[in-house]
Automatic annotation (TrEMBL):
Transmembrane listed as a keyword: yes
Main location: membrane
Domain Cytochrome b561 bacterial/Ni-hydrogenase: 133-300
Family affiliation: Belongs to the formate dehydrogenase gamma subunit family.
GO cellular component, one term: formate dehydrogenase complex
This protein's name: Formate dehydrogenase subunit gamma
Cofactor: heme
Originating organism: Candidatus Raskinella chloraquaticus
Pfam families attached to this UniProt entry: Ni_hydr_CYTB
UniProt xrefs under NCBIfam families: formate-DH-gamm
Annotated keywords: Cell membrane, Electron transport, Heme, Iron, Membrane, Metal-binding, Signal, Transmembrane, Transmembrane helix, Transport
Protein localization: Cell membrane
Length: 338
């Protein structure tokens, strides 16, 4: 008898459950709108997302209500953050790795084919002043801080995947914290370096007809012809403008991230972060080519930024128009090398 009563009880409970499930399903299928209460504890993320209108036609976030002064904390779901995370964690590392590894591979191939670009006829033994100490200060300030910013920035993009497994969590944490410090404070010196470069070199980096001729002849990098160039050739002008435009863009996006919500809102911050990363990896790739040609890639080039003076034959080979002009002015007259 007891067993009979138990099975009746079970059957009744099953029947009630079935009625609830079927009626809920019918309600959903009838297309009746279900209202969403974002503060209800049982609300599902999916329901909240469904409640968001398509982009452009309504709010871009699900917000609740807060009584504290910081109203930003009322944002519960902000779907654009998913696109940001996707770019930050996948797109940026992917294209960043292609740009940097691709450039390194291209430089190795270029070196194997072209070798070190030599001074035709060898050094003359006479030198000419190429960069005064103010020029060299601006260059090395920008260069050293760029390298520190690049390394600490690349750690944010690739460190977790590449460094963390190698050095372990404690060392990685210490390194990343130090890197963040260097990145934040080093940025001011980098920005100053870019401003100095603009003040010192802008007038010699205005594009001219000679640049077109320089590019059309492969800039002397391809083949043995050395098209005449002024103080900076077409390729160097490209580097200059990449540093100036890229440096300004990195500063604007970087400072808006360093002082969040001061200059822009959450959408602006996400865009700034994506742009900052993409511009930075692009610049790293370009600067790798610059470092190559300014050091191992070309005989005599490093002296320009090392000592400030270059061999006269090097100068005539790569900057014939500039040598002519300098000699006419009687400035930087060639002196015998030590
Ligand atoms: C160890 C790294 C670097 C080396 C060895 C190096 C070397 C040089 C040399 C030798 C020059 C003078 C070329 C000439 O006389 O015609 C130069 C110029 C210049 N450097 Fe660097 N550089 C380095 C890093 C950087 C970095 C990181 C930046 C910027 C972020 C930079 C920006 C420039 C600019 C704008 C110029 C003038 C345009 C040009 O010559 O391309 N350099 N560099």
């Amino acid at each position: 008898m007891v067993a009979f009563q138990r099975s009746w009880g079970l059957a009744a409970a099953l029947a009630i459950a079935l009625v609830i499930v079927v009626s809920g399903d019918a309600l959903a299928q009838s297309g009746q709108p279900t209202s969403v209460n974002p503060t209800a504890s049982s609300v599902k993320e999916g329901q909240l997302l469904d409640a968001l209108k398509p982009p452009g036609s309504g709010p871009s976030a699900v917000t609740g209500r807060v009584s504290i002064p910081d109203t930003k904390s009322s944002v519960l779901i902000q779907p654009a953050g998913r696109d940001w995370r996707q770019i930050r964690q996948e797109t940026l590392p992917f294209y960043g790795a292609i740009a940097i590894l691709g450039m390194l591979a291209a430089l190795v191939i270029f070196y194997l084919i072209r070798g070190r670009i030599a001074i035709d006829g060898g050094p003359s033994g006479r030198t000419i002043l190429r960069f005064a100490s103010a020029d060299r200060f601006a260059h090395w300030l920008t260069a050293s801080t760029f390298i520190l910013l690049a390394l600490s920035g690349l750690n944010l993009t690739f460190g977790r995947k590449l460094l963390l497994p190698l050095i372990g969590p404690e060392a990685f944490t210490a390194l990343s914290q130090a890197g963040k410090f260097v990145h934040n404070y080093g940025s001011f010196a980098f920005a100053l370096g870019v401003v100095l470069m603009i003040l010192l070199w802008l007038k010699d980096n205005i594009p001219s007809g000679a640049d077109l001729a320089w590019f059309s002849k492969g800039g002397g990098l391809i083949g043995s012809d050395h098209p005449p160039a002024g103080r900076f050739n077409g390729g160097q002008k490209v580097i200059f403008w990449v540093v100036v435009i890229g440096g300004v863009a990195l500063s604007i996006t970087g400072y808006s991230l360093m002082f969040p919500f001061v200059f822009t809102d959450i959408a602006g911050l996400q865009e700034a972060n994506m742009l900052h990363g993409l511009i930075a990896v692009g610049m790293v790739a370009v600067i790798l080519a610059h470092i190559y040609i300014g050091s191992v890639g070309m005989e005599g080039a490093f002296d320009a930024m090392g000592k400030g003076e270059v061999d006269l034959n090097w100068a005539k080979q790569h900057h014939a128009l500039w040598v002519e002009k300098t000699e006419m002015k009687g400035k930087g007259a060639a002196t015998p090398a030590e």
